Amino acid sequence: MSKKSEKRSEKRSEKKTEKKTGRPVTTRITKANALIKASYRLTLEEQRLIMACLSQINPKETVPKKITVYADDYARQFGLCKKSAYSQLRDVSKGFYERDILLQDPGKKRRSHIRWVQQVDYFDGGGRVDLYFADKIKAYLGQLSGDFSSYFIDHVAGLSSNYSIRLYEMIAQWSDIKDEIDIPLAEFRDRLQITDKYHAFDNLRRRVIVPALKDLNQRSNLDIVWEAILRGRKVIGLRFRFKEKRDRLPIAV
Question: Which of 121, 156, 184, 200 gives 20 to 30 Å between its CA and that of 127?
Answer without folding.
Answer: 156
